[in-house]
């Protein structure tokens, strides 16, 4: 099978994934890659994304912030998905994200651990 490292350099793969995620959400977003690493065929990417704010004054009144920044962590791997004539190779990814304030609070670590636990082609253990 193919591996992610054969497709493109790590930083370029991270940018491609970031653009794809932005496109999936309407395309008006422009995520910045904060860090990325490729280990054991798995690409881990952390993104920062400024979200559109209709009324910064109202947001500041309600939450004490004038901008909404989403932090995301994604894990991608090379796998297979069903195709018309059998399995076809694909890059598959799982994402976890929240607002920066929550990420810096108590959500960043569990979201990162959750994304990093992603396994393609394995059934999750039922507790």
> How many domain regions?
1
Parts with pLDDT < 50 across at least 5 consecutive residues:
none
How many helical elements? 4
The mean pLDDT is 90
Q: What is the N-to-C succession of helices and strands?
A: HHEEHEEH
* Major β-sheet annotation: 4 strands, antiparallel
Shape: elongated
Structural class: alpha+beta
Proportion in β-strands: 35-45%
**Terminal Cα separation, in Å?**
32 Å
Helix-residue proportion: 25-40%
The largest beta-sheet arranges its strands as: 1-2-3-4
Radius of gyration, whole Å: 17 Å
How many strand segments?
4
Assembly context of the chains: single chain
Structure report:
The protein has a four-stranded antiparallel sheet with strand order 1-2-3-4, sandwiched between helices. The mean pLDDT is 90. The longest helix has 17 residues, at 100-116. The protein has four helices and four strands; from the N terminus they run ααββαββα. The protein is α+β, with helices and mostly antiparallel strands and 127 residues long. A hairpin with a 2-residue loop joins strand 3 and strand 4. The chain has one domain. It is elongated and about 55 Å long.
